[in-house]
């Protein structure tokens, strides 16, 4: 189907990424998979390639663009190859918007040059062991010292993608108690140096999928955070988080669509090569009907993902529209990948086949960034229900 979201620059970037994956990632990806993370020096290669600087102003070493379309190409190409780039997605999609939106000029001068090169990798620490979708229920605290020079951070976070390799983490913590009128009041955001005394990484979590993306538990015991590393204003953290949720949910939606598209590619290749009863699996009517139905769903998901991308780039993607895109694209991907795995038969269950890894990787899309149930609640509220 004809698409209008990408131009020649995006297609040139696509060729660069495809060649990079073939040369630098595909040959060693099984090693990453076995290790449970991408190696730290891989992020320097992404920095050299310019991936981290696309949306960073030129004065800090970036390309100075303001678009998510290159990220979209990256989603498509990594899915197509059956790989992922570790915690780098969090670095760009989740952390960078907060730096651009909240950091002072002084902070940007300190943070962004190292962000662009991969010298400092960033993560976002929001979820706690007892609070997932209920962000307002967080227990981590940051108390201002008596001399006003620093905050003292105490608490724990979990499910932190990129948490093992992160050099800086945007930590959400309570600087004040919630009020009777607003339980979301009192949350603040901090840029925390992971080398700080009292900061520790707990377990590297053993996940069902996304095996090459390091995910960790973090703990803070009397961690001193200089006041110069407060992002934005005190107690407005929940508002800031809400500002960036649409872009995060678009990213999950687009990534899920890209995975579904890749699943069809893997299944097509397999059924044309695999023979049963002396005939290619592709020759059976059921195979044709299954793949045709999957293609129709992916065509629809592509249109939804592209429309959300255009709205995001124009600054017009609403929370309800982002929720709708995430709900639709992740549910489509769930159905399509399952059907494509079925066409692989027993081999579809083997991790040496990309469809098996894709099946496991995809499952979290309906959970993180807000569960499908939360997305339905947001959509229903926008409908006046």
Describe this structure in words.
It is a single chain. 49% of the residues lie in helices and 15% in strands. It has eleven helices and ten strands. The strands form three sheets. The chain has a four-stranded mixed sheet with strand order 1-4-5-8, covered by helices on one side. The protein is globular, with a radius of gyration of 21 Å.
Q: Which labels suit this protein?
A:
alpha+beta; 4-stranded mixed β-sheet; 4-stranded antiparallel β-sheet; 11 helices; 15% strand
What's the structural blueprint in terms of helices and strands?
Blueprint: H1 8-25, H2 29-35, H3 40-49, H4 69-81, H5 88-102, H6 105-117, E1 122-125, E2 141-144, E3 150-161, E4 168-174, E5 187-193, E6 199-204, E7 215-226, E8 230-231, H7 237-273, E9 275-276, E10 279-280, H8 285-313, H9 319-343, H10 354-362, H11 372-382
Q: In this structure, how is the largest beta sheet organized? A: 4 strands, mixed
- The N- to C-terminal Cα distance equals 36 Å
In order across it, which strands form the biggest sheet?
Answer: 1-4-5-8
Query: What does the radius of gyration come to?
Result: 21 Å
Tell me the number of strands: 10
- Quickly give the structural class: alpha+beta
Task: Please provide a brief summary of the model.
This protein has 11 helices and 10 strands. The protein is α+β, with helices and mostly antiparallel strands and 385 residues long. Keywords: FAD, Flavoprotein, Oxidoreductase.
């Amino acid at each position: 189907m004809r698409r209008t979201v990408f131009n020649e620059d995006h297609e040139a970037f696509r060729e660069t990424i495809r060649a990079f994956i073939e040369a630098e990632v595909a040959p060693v990806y099984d090693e990453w998979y076995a290790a449970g993370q991408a190696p730290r020096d891989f992020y320097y290669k992404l920095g050299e390639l310019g991936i981290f600087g696309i949306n960073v102003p030129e004065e800090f070493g970036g390309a100075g663009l303001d678009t998510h379309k290159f990220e979209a190409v990256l989603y498509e190409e990594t899915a197509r190859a059956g790989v992922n780039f570790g915690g780098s997605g969090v670095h760009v999609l989740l952390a960078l918007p907060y730096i651009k939106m909240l950091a002072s000029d002084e902070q940007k001068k300190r943070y962004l040059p190292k962000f662009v090169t991969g010298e400092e990798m960033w993560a976002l620490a929001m979820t706690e062991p007892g609070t997932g979708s209920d962000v307002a229920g967080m227990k981590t605290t940051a108390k201002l010292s008596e001399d006003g020079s620093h905050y003292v951070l105490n608490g724990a976070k979990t499910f932190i993608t990129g948490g093992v390799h992160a050099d800086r983490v945007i930590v959400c913590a309570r600087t004040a108690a919630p009020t009777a009128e607003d339980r979301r009041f009192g949350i603040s955001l901090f840029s925390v140096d992971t080398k700080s005394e009292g900061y520790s990484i707990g377990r590297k979590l053993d996940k069902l999928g996304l095996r090459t993306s390091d995910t960790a538990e973090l703990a803070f015991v009397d961690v001193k955070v200089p006041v110069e590393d407060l992002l934005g204003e005190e107690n407005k953290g929940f508002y800031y988080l809400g500002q960036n949720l649409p872009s995060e949910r678009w990213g999950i939606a687009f990534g899920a669509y890209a995975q579904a598209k890749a699943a069809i590619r893997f299944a097509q290749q397999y059924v044309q090569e695999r023979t049963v009863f002396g005939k290619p699996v592709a020759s059976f009517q059921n195979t044709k009907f299954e793949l045709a139905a999957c293609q129709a769903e992916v065509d629809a998901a592509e249109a939804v993902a592209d429309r959300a991308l255009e709205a995001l780039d124009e600054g017009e993607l609403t929370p309800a529209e982002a929720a709708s895109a995430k709900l639709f694209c992740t549910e489509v991907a769930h159905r399509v990948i399952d059907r494509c795995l079925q066409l692989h038969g027993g081999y579809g269950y083997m991790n040496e086949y990309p469809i098996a890894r894709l099946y496991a990787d995809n499952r979290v899309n309906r959970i993180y960034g807000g569960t499908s149930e939360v997305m339905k609640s947001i959509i229903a509220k926008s409908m006046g229900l």
